[in-house]
Structure formats: structure tokens, C-alpha cells
Write a structure and sequence with these properties.
It is built from 12 helices and 15 strands. It is of the alpha/beta class. It has 2 domains: about 80 residues, Alpha-Beta Plaits (2-Layer Sandwich), CATH 3.30.70; about 260 residues, Alpha-Beta Barrel (TIM Barrel). Helix 4 crosses helix 5 and helix 7 crosses helix 8. The N and C termini lie far apart (about 50 Å). The structure holds phosphoenolpyruvate (PEP) and manganese (II) ion.
Amino acid sequence: MHTFGTARHASARALGSHAVVIVMAPKASETDIAGVVSHIEAHGGQAFVSRGVMRTIVGVVGSEEVLETLDADGLPGVAETMRITAPYKLVSAQNHARRTTVRVGGVPIGPETFTLIAGPCAVESASQTLEAARMAKRAGATLLRGGAYKPRTSPYAFQGLGLTGLRILAEVREEVQLPIVTEVTDVGEVDVVAELADMLQVGARNMQNFALLKKLARTRKPILLKRGPSATVKEWLSAAEYLLHGGNENVVLCERGIKTFDNSLRNTLDLAGVALVKEMTHLPIIVDPSHATGKRSIIPACARAALAVGADGVIVEVHPEPEKAWSDGAQSLTFENFAELMNGLRVPMKSVTSTVPALVM
Ligand code: PEP
Ligand code: MN
């Protein structure tokens, strides 16, 4: 056991910056405090006891593993425990001097560029995929998306062409020369998708499929990690931490809308979350205005907003005939819509009208 003091601070630093504070109840006994200290030490952590007039607090310093297994909440005399360092040190911006750029088949996603990823929601046939890919490329996309394995809410909905779809995507890649991004829904699909695709998407519904994340970490392939529909930013970053912890640093985050009380749109696009994530991590982050809104007409506006808020790119769904799409037709862009989106991104933002003279700093 240690008491707080200058000499002790040096050893606390040596153990790293991971810390928890345990606040003892005002009526906690000396036996309770000693019990907490031996619990911490038995888990391999270092305890620092600080006695106030009313309360005693016990600081804990240790490795990430020590803090995650500590579980001190139920110990006698403990009022509350507070984690004061984030449990995602590898994705955190704190330990990274520069933002990360992830390369997908040579195409960068990161701070220097605004990357456009476009393609159909699902691969339906070779001709539909090729046509959508040509549309995407002609309008300026540098990566092609398309789902072969589809996670669908209803078991009766089109589930994707699977391996056939994957092979179509690989052929279309050769034809149009765009690297491909496609979803992997299950651990059993990882090897074949990793072999044929350039970037593997973890869909929103799978964000916390930890077995899948662990397996994807071992592939070292670029991963597009979508935010779960009900996931907090912290849960999302912890999911990304699984990938980095497993050895894969090629991770791009994707905000695709979350569930809120408002059901006017398919989801609620959390743009403030995008700005926040840019502060919290060094990883690139892109926005999916298609799934966030479900509404074709407002997708160009949301793409402009994504650019304004600091996103590193957008991923959108396009289809040669949206009204005939097998999935997500209402949010799929035609070539004209996509060209409008691209033009909007090139036009400078409106200038601010103000009667206040410019500030001289
Ligand atoms: C998709 O990209 O086609 C998809 C299913 O997205 P999400 O996981 O965000 O719903
Ligand atoms: Mn879709």
C-alpha cells in the first residue's frame, strides 16, 4: 500500500497512465479500507490511499488488464468507483502525434483527402453491379461498395448473393478499376471475404460481435467499422480497440445514424458525434448519409454537412434503377443525384453575413 506523496507519484507514472478512483463510504472501517487495498494488490494493481476528513479515497494504478478485472464496486465500504482514463488507449488520440491514414488498394482515407465510396446496397447481378460501379466512377468515387452478405432485419428479405456476389464484385473491380468494400456478417465468411475484397465492412448490427472483431483483427485488412444503431461513442471506440488490440491498425470508423426518439427519418445522423470522435481518436472517420437518413433527397445536404464537420469521406448507395432495387431503393441515388452530391461538395460553403467587423487578433 502507498500513501500519496511525491516519491510515490514517480512509481505511479512507471505503471502507466491507467487509473481508477475508489471512493469509500463515510462510515467505511479501517478493515474495509485494508480489504480494498489487498483486493487491488491481489489483482496486480498499486493502491494509493488518501484520507480526508469525511472520506477516504483509494487510487488504483495498473495495466489495462488490471483495471478491467478489478471489479471493486461490491466490496464492503465502497461507495463508488470511477474510471478516470478511457479503456481504449490504442485508438485514443492522446498517444498519437498524427492522425492515421488507412490505404485501401492504394486509395487513402484520412486527413489529407475526402474519400467518396459509392455503389449499390446489394449486388443483385453482374450487369446491375457493373452499371452502378460505372456510375460511381464517372461521378468521382474512388472506392466501390456493394453487399454480397446482407444482414437483413427480416428473414424473408433478400439475404444477398453470398459468394456469387463476392465474385461479381471482384470481376467488376477488374473492369472499372476501383478497389471494393463489402460487408462480412459472420466469422465463417472472413477468410473468403478477406481474400476477395480490399476493405471489409463490419455492419452496424455486428459492431459488438467480438468473435468477428477478433478474427478480423488477425486479417490485417482495412476494416470499415460502422457504429451500432444504439451504441454510444465509447462503446464504438471500444469495439475499434478490439481490432487494434488484435494487431490491425487499418481501421476506419463510420457514422451511419443512431436510434433516437425521432422517427421522421430512418435514423438520426449524429454529426456532433463525428466531430467528437475526431477529437478523441487518431482513426479516420467517414459518414454514411444513406443509412442515416433513408431518404434520397437529403443525402447531398448531409454529405456536405459531413465534410463541414470534418469527416474524412462519405459512403453512399447508388443504383442504376433505384425503383427496382432489391434493397434500400428509397435511399439509393441515381447518377444525376450522385453528380449533384459531388457538385455540392465542390461548391464553396455560403459566406457568413455579419454586421460585426472582422476581429483583428
Ligand atoms: C450497408 O452498408 O448496406 C448496411 C447494411 O449498413 P448498416 O450496417 O449501417 O445498416
Ligand atoms: Mn443498404
